[in-house]
Amino acid sequence: MANSLILAAAAAAAANKSLLAAPFPCYSLSPYPSCPRLHSHSFLPKPSVHVNAQYSLTSLHGRLSPVPALDSDVPHPLNQGPSVKVKNDNSKRFEEWDFWTAKFSGGANFPFLLLQMPQIILNANNLMSGNKTALWAVPWLGMLTGLLGNLSLLSYFAKKRETEAIVVQTLGVISIYIVIAQLAMAEAMPLPYFVVTSVVVAAGLVLNFLNYFGMLNTGIWRFWEDFITVCGLSALPQVMWSTFVPYIPNSILPGAMSFVAAVAAVIMARTGKLSEKGVKFVGAISGWTATLLFMWMPVSQMWTNFLNPDNIKGLSAFSMLLAMIGNGLMIPRALFIRDFMWFTGATWAALFYGYGNILCMYYFNSISGKFLLAATAGLVSWIGMALWRDTVVYGYSSPLRSLKELVFGS
């Protein structure tokens, strides 16, 4: 989805020349979302253009069924709904595009890694020089929100056995945690919050990887899912509300109300008080709240830019370009396997976080028109290519059918 969406924070003082810190998205839902070529439980070979056409159609037959919004959370898409039928003369194209979309999504790790390292190195240099004040420019609460989003998406992809997406989200969790640890060392983050965060991160990584390898008790995994569902649903309204403070009263009421609602929903789902559709909805909450958290980040950033135009000077055009590229690389794969949540998060992040901030920088004369033109041409061409190629490999006459399947299922 990764997670692939990135939260930018303004630099502290010009003298410190601090870069923006940005939680790494997902997809990055992202907003989010990189997928493996085949599920590990399928026991099928990796896609290859040399695979026999008849066999390849069998191996990909049910896996690439459209995933309706509420079914995005289902662990094994192989068992979902009617299968997608691919014409025999399109089988080679289908296999090739399956292979390349997996490569693209795996390649998203590179721009995301480049995006995080400068901030981590800068923080380390400031700490070693005793300049702890510079790190106070990085909002630890925003970083914590991004960390929670990455953990939720890591659980989403671990349950679906999406190997390359797991790598993207794990890299996001680790990179954000390193920044949070640096903030704690600079006393910019309260120690008790850091300790709790450390326990949650360690538990989350261990549980997700145990579950991925089939070594985790079902009851423990359900408890973890309930935990991230409650945390995500509590954080989302609170983050959205806090964005507009002081124009609205500072209050924890949105988060508190959401917490109560989330706990009630989880209890009802686990005690059989909800319908099958209701249980499915509760199961999808954690992934969707993570995606929506990432989707809110560019809104928050643009609101900050609107209120404080000088903050634009703290934004790195190269960082925003990397954010756009990283999320854009995951769009073809999310579209190809019909994962609506992942497609939503990745597309939103590419358009509104990466490209949206590039537009803001151009408006405030921080970048040249040539830079904006190149970014625009690249993004439009990439999305257009993804839609066109998906239409061709599925044998459709219009990309609208691909998008319809993506949103509504088959």
UniProtKB/TrEMBL annotation:
Segments passing through the bilayer: 134-158, 165-185, 191-211, 247-269, 281-299, 311-330, 342-364, 370-388
InterPro entries per the UniProt record, alphabetical: MEX1/MEX1-like
UniProt KW Signal keyword: yes
Signal peptide: 1-21
GO molecular function list: maltose transmembrane transporter activity
Keyword line: Membrane, Signal, Transmembrane, Transmembrane helix
GO cellular component, one term: chloroplast envelope
Superkingdom of source: Eukaryota
Listed PANTHER family: MALTOSE EXCESS PROTEIN 1, CHLOROPLASTIC-RELATED (PTHR34809)
The protein, known as: Uncharacterized protein
Species assigned in the record: Dovyalis caffra
